[in-house]
Design goal:
135 residues, mainly alpha, 6% strand
């Protein structure tokens, strides 16, 4: 099946419109103009900046916005887990319980010895038994 693409004049306008919408939303959300605008090398961001009349310095380049991109990884992981549920409410309920229990069982193994790990696991199992027996 051949892949169809938009003509360059339409594709460029679509990217410009999307970039303009994104920058406007960010400006409305934060309330004030940025001092530095860090984006990837997509040229539409520069066009949106010029169209809005922002005087902020525009930094573009490889791995300039890694901090912003990497900050969303935890959210993406949680979103992936919530796709298994029928509703957001049931996902929230389950994830809330999981967060409380996760701290009992998730230990950073490289920081503790084997004997300490076994002690922690026994304590966690006992607490889990009393918590589930009470409900």
């Amino acid at each position: 099946m051949p892949v169809t693409s938009f003509p360059p004049e339409i594709a460029g306008r679509r990217h410009n419109a999307a970039a303009l919408r994104l920058v406007r939303n960010l400006l409305e959300k934060h309330g004030l103009a940025p001092k530095v605008l860090v984006t990837d090398k997509l040229r539409s961001y520069g066009a949106a900046r010029r169209e809005l009349g922002l005087s902020a310095r525009h930094e573009q380049g490889l791995r300039r916005n890694n901090r912003a991109e990497n900050s969303h990884q935890v959210i993406r992981r949680r979103e992936c887990k919530t796709q298994l549920f029928k509703s957001p409410m049931s996902a929230q309920r389950s994830l809330c319980v999981h967060a409380a229990v996760h701290n009992l069982f998730h230990l950073e193994r490289h920081l503790i010895s084997g004997a300490t790990l076994r002690l922690f696991r026994a304590t966690a199992a006992q607490q889990w038994q009393t918590a589930t027996a009470a409900t």
